[in-house]
């Protein structure tokens, strides 16, 4: 059985609502030589991977953070993340019902330094 859910039925599918965007520093504001000191404000997860967001543009379309793609777990890296691409994946999940495209925001996430994250236990795509 394929489970389909409307986006408005579960607010974790709303990846970056305005109040969340407003609570995250803008791109470049946490830039330093040591990314482990950056505060992770949002965690997205799904079968495709995990994304730890530290900064975002004012529109919530581009972010910076740490990405772990489930099909390439050895290539974990810091970089720019296109939120629209994650939203497109969610659209495919909602329209097709294939959970491999589902991306959700961890609504229970509390901001913390990247160095405080235990990747093995807090990453859901492993």
Task: Please work out how many helical segments DSSP would assign.
Answer: 3
Spatial extent as radius of gyration = 14 Å
Biggest pleated sheet: 5 strands, antiparallel
Helix content percent band: 10-25%
Strand order of the largest sheet: 5-4-3-2-6
* Portion in strands: 25-35%
CA distance, first residue to last residue: 24 Å
Topology order in helix (H) and strand (E) letters: HEEEEEHEEH
Number of strands: 7
Question: Could you say which overall geometry the principal axes of the C-alpha atoms support?
Answer: globular
Q: Roughly what is the average pLDDT, rounded to an integer?
A: 87
Summing up helix and strand content along with how strands pair, one would put the structural category as: alpha+beta
- Residue runs with pLDDT of under 50 for 5 or more positions: 1-8
How would you describe what is shown here?
The chain has 126 residues and is of the alpha+beta class. Helices cover 19% and strands 26% of the residues. It has 3 helices and 7 strands; from the N terminus they run αβββββαββα. The chain has helices at residues 18-23, 83-96, 119-122; strands at residues 39-40, 42-46, 49-56, 62-69, 77-82, 104-105, 112-113. The strands form 2 sheets. A 5-stranded antiparallel sheet has the order 5-4-3-2-6. A two-stranded antiparallel sheet has the order 1-7. Strand 4 (62-69) and strand 5 (77-82) form a beta hairpin. Mean pLDDT is 87; it is low at 1-8.
What is this entry, summarized?
The protein has 126 residues and is an alpha+beta fold. It is 19% helix and 26% strand.
């Amino acid at each position: 059985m394929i489970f389909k859910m409307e986006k408005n039925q579960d607010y974790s599918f709303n990846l970056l609502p305005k109040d969340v965007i407003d609570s995250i520093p803008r791109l470049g504001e946490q830039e330093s030589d040591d990314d482990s000191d950056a505060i992770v404000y949002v965690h997205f997860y799904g079968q495709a991977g995990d994304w730890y967001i530290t900064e975002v543009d004012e529109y919530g379309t581009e972010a910076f953070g740490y990405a772990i793609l489930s099909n390439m777990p050895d290539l974990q890296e810091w970089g720019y993340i296109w939120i629209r691409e994650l939203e497109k994946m969610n659209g495919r999940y909602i329209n097709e019902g294939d959970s491999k495209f589902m991306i959700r925001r961890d609504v229970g996430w509390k901001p913390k330094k990247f160095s405080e994250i235990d990747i093995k236990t807090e990453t859901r795509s492993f």
